[in-house]
Amino acid sequence: MNHLAASPRSRVLIEGEYALTQRNFDQIAAFLRDETGIALTEAKATLVYSRLAKRIRKLGLASFDEYCAFAVSPAGAGERTEMMAALTTNVTRFFREPHHFDHFRASVGPRLIEAAKSGARVRLWSAACSSGEEPYSLALTILGLCPDIGRYDLRILASDIDPNIVAKAKAGRYREDAVAPIPAALRTRWLSRDGERDGMWTVRPEVRDLIVFKELNLIGDWPMRGQFDAIFCRNVVIYFEEATQAFLWNRFKNALTPEGRLYIGHSERVDVAGYESDGLTVYKLSGAR
Questions:
Q1: pTM of the full predicted structure?
Q2: b/e burial code for range 214-244 (CB count within 10 A of at least 16 → b)
């Protein structure tokens, strides 16, 4: 945590209830880069201010200087997690970028289901699951192809760096408007209403049982030992510097089975050796079928 040490720069970037100085911003940006790989430019100063001012207020501190000092202290370990959660973006929805689920349904899912039925171990990974819409969309796609897939050894790992958002994903409760993109047949079979007045839907246990939710830092240690037949990592690396992007693409390459597929965001590109395109923002290992 030495990257939160004091800096001589005291230019004020944002005036407000608490002044955000260049030094404060640099300390916070260095922390986020070192811990998560996310690169914050000065254009994000307003975002940093708005999200962390709430934390300062809640902690009863007087300034960003005090906040940064607290975050670096032994007592601030929990706040470092809260800082990462506040500064990471959780924008998602069910069946976001639907062409990926169409590709999986047509080109990948049937093969993996047959493998699972034959006794093979099949593993999928939603590598930045946010509040759960992505892994649940993947599970619903598979259930649409094979409603009794729970009998076989097919599971989805859903991970995110934010423990608060992982807990929300695991609960599997969503507003009426959030579940609207789910096809009606899948929604009525695999989700249940919590009550007409409540306006909430809950993912059924048969769906949740296909998914293991875990807190995980993509640039940290990975405890998983096996490889994955498909990895969804979408709209994440756009927040990383180029070197970190390349590091992660290579890491995913080693985590894929020989016939595995990597699904990435619409504005992202894989530019390291060893991959080839298999569709719109879908990649396979070079030479794979």
A1: 0.85
A2: eebebbeeeeeeeebbbbbbbbbbbbbeeeb
| Average pLDDT of the chain to the nearest whole number | 92
Rg of the Cα atoms in the chain:
21
Residues 6+ away with beta carbon under 8 Å from 52: 28, 64, 67, 83, 86, 87
- Give per-residue pLDDT as tens, 27-63: 999 998 888 888 888 888 998 999 899 999 999 999 9
Backbone angles phi, psi at 114, to 5 degrees: -65, -40
CATH fold match for the domains 2-87 and 98-285: no
According to DSSP, the residues that pair with 229 across neighbouring strands are: none
Which residues partner with 228 through β-bridges? 256
The phi, psi pair for 231, rounded to 5°, reads -125, 125
Confidence of residue 196 (pLDDT cuts 50, 70, 90): low
Residue 39 contacts residue 243 (beta carbons within 8 Å): no
User: Active-site residue numbers?
Assistant: 51, 160
Residues contacting residue 256 through CB under 8 Å, at least 6 positions apart: 227, 228, 229, 231, 262, 285
**CATH T-level assignment (fold) for domain 2-87:** Chemotaxis Receptor Methyltransferase Cher; domain 1 (1.10.155)
CATH code for 98-285? 3.40.50.150
Instruction: Give the Cα separation of 218 and 40 in Å (integer).
Output: 17
State the Cα–Cα distance between residues 42 and 26, nearest whole angstrom: 9
231-247 pLDDT, tens digit per residue, is 999 998 888 989 999 99
pLDDT beyond 60 at 6 = no
